[in-house]
Amino acid sequence: MIWKVEKNGKYLVCIAYQLCVNEIDDNSHLHLPGCWNLIWKLKVPPKIKKLVWHVCRGCFPTRARLSSKGVHCPTYCVLCESNYEGSIHILLECPNDIQVWRHVNLWDKIDRTLMQNYNMDVVVFTLLHQLSLSQSELFATFLWSLWKRRNL
C-alpha cells in the first residue's frame, strides 16, 4: 500500500490528522483575522499569552458575555459599579484601569487606539503592532494583572 498524501509514500499519523483537520472537517469558522504571532512571540508567562488570546478570540468571561450565554449575573462592573462590564471596560476603560495605564505611560496610546476602533481584538492587535516589544510585554502583563485584581 502506498500513502498518496506524502511523496515518499509513508503513512504518518500526524499527517493523517492534519489532513482530517484541514481538509475533511470544515473549520473555517475558527480562523479569525489578526496577527496572532504578536501574542505568541511575547516573552511573558504562558498564562498571560493565553489571557490575551482569549481576549482577542472574544471568549473572555466578562459579566456581559456570561449574561449573553444565559448565566444569571449582574452586568455592571465589579470595581466601579457604573458601566456595562465588557472586556474593553474591565481591561482598559474602567476608571481604576485608566490610572494604572497612565502610571505606566500607555494610556495615551490606548486612548488613541480606542478612538479609532472599539473592538477589543483590533485594539489589542493594533497596540501590539505599534508598541515596542518591551512595551507590548508590559501591556500584556498589565492586562493579566488588571484581570487578576478584578477577580480578587
Write up this protein.
The N and C termini lie far apart (59 Å). Helix content is 59%, strand content 0%. The model has no long low-confidence stretch (mean pLDDT 88). 21% of the residues are buried. It has two domains: 31 residues, no CATH class; 118 residues, no CATH class. It is built from nine helices and no strands. Helix 3 crosses helix 8. With 152 residues, it is an all-alpha fold. The radius of gyration is 20 Å and the shape is elongated.
Proportion of residues in β-strands: under 5%
Summarize the main sheet: none
Number of domains: 2
- Secondary structure: number of strands: 0
> Helix share of residues?
55-70%
What's the helix-strand series?
HHHHHHHHH
Cα-based radius of gyration, to the nearest Å: 20 Å
Content-based structural category: mainly alpha
Shape: elongated
Q: Calculate the mean pLDDT score and round it.
A: 88
Count of helical stretches: 9
End-to-end separation = 59 Å
Q: Would you identify the regions where 5 or more consecutive residues have pLDDT less than 50?
A: none
Keyword list:
152 residues, mainly alpha, 2 domains, 9 helices, 59% helix, elongated
What is the topological layout?
Elements lengths: L12 H12 L12 H4 L5 H12 L5 H6 L18 H7 L1 H9 L3 H10 L3 H11 L2 H19 L1
Give a summary of the structure in a few sentences.
The chain has helices at residues 13-24, 37-40, 46-57, 63-68, 87-93, 95-103, 107-116, 120-130, 133-151.
